[in-house]
Design brief:
Distance between the termini: 40 Å
Radius of gyration: 17 Å
Number of helices: 8
Number of strands: 8
Order of helices and strands: HEHEHEHEHEHEHEHE
Strand content: 15-25%
Largest sheet: 8 strands, mixed
Bound molecules: S-adenosylmethionine
Mean pLDDT: 95
């Protein structure tokens, strides 16, 4: 019997890794990296991973990681588990960790939803989904990250009061996200502020004249 593969929210793409990224991979991956294997359901103890019992933030699809490094640097009391499939981004975030001597980031390589399945319920203080791939064509909407099953799983991983913060520069996706988030019984709209550093993809959207929407929901 063949196992049905889950629908991917990303295109596998290969990127070149420059010397700075390759050096960071060699030096820092052993201490800061985590490989996420599809189908692995081994529970992941986040306090053990970070070596302390601090609030945990999951950052999904961090791109090149500049925003993650800035947020984590400004927020030393919380730990950031950053997950990405794109290899140059992994190398870049590891390089930033080294350059800024950040101790509160771990870099996971693989599918964020596979990683989320390994986390304990109520284990996260926040989940960040900043500028997820919009998949604008209707036949690709099923690949969008913010959809009911994924949101239910993320809501369950948040502790009560924990925040799911999504942002997008695609108005249609913003509307669809809002519908999905409102429909999830475990979440309610939050009045929390949406301050965050501007991300690389956000800059592209702003340059193209697209409006930015932040959606923040809290686990009830
Ligand atoms: C449009 S980029 C945004 C990057 C960054 N957050 C920013 O705002 O600049 C979306 C990123 O999400 C990553 N991604 C998509 N689906 C993912 C998944 N299931 N797990 C981990 N990363 C994912 C992609 O590889 C891509 O780098």
């Amino acid at each position: 019997m063949t196992e049905t593969r889950p629908i991917r929210t990303f295109h596998p793409r290969r990127g070149r890794m420059g010397a700075r990224h390759a050096d960071a991979m060699a030096e820092l991956w052993p201490a800061y990296g985590l490989t996420v294997e599809d189908g692995d359901r081994t529970p992941l103890d986040l306090d053990e991973l970070f070596g302390r019992p601090a609030p945990k933030v999951l950052e999904i699809g961090f791109g090149m990681g500049d925003t993650t490094a800035t947020m984590a640097g400004a927020d030393p009391g919380r730990d950031y588990l950053a997950v990405e499939v794109h290899t140059p981004g992994i190398g870049n975030l590891l390089a930033l960790i080294g350059e800024r001597a950040l101790t509160n980031i771990r870099v996971a390589h693989g599918d964020a939803m596979e990683l989320a399945r390994r986390l304990a319920p109520d284990s996260l203080a926040a989940v960040h989904v900043f500028f997820p791939d919009p998949w604008p064509k209707a036949r690709h909407h099923k690949r969008r990250l913010i959809q009911p099953d994924n949101v239910r799983l993320l809501a369950q991983r948040l502790r009560p009061g924990g925040l799911l913060h999504c942002a997008t520069d695609w108005p249609h996706y913003a509307e669809a996200m809002d519908r999905v988030l409102v429909a999830e019984a475990g979440l309610e709209r939050s009045e929390a502020g949406s301050e965050r550093p501007r991300t690389k993809f956000e800059e592209r959207g702003v340059r193209a004249g697209r409006p930015i929407t932040d959606l923040i929901f809290r686990r009830v």
